[in-house]
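REQUEST ID: PR-0412
SUBMITTED BY: lab tech R.K.
PRIORITY: routine
TASK: structure prediction, single protein chain
INPUT:
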Amino acid sequence: MNKWKKSESWENGQKVENSFAKLLGQRDPDFRAATKQEQYKHIDYHSYFGTIDVKAKKRLNRLDSKGQDEFVWLEFKNIHVVLLRSPIKY
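STATUS: complete
OUTPUT:
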């Protein structure tokens, strides 16, 4: 088993991904979660907007000692630009 799986960081990441999936489903009901193999390529979801990798609890600056959880980082690939703005609560 992966040493990160079931860690606090992994659990937090799952919560953020699940919250984002709810928001994404409102904008694209036909989205789908990535397969295990796709997750190794840093893809969490496939959607009308492109492929998306959700990042949770990151430092805003390299010099920051702690991560923050106010913002969720999204990496889009193969995108169709549409504004997705909504607070995500988890």
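NOTES: Residues 8-77 form one domain.
REVIEWED BY: pending
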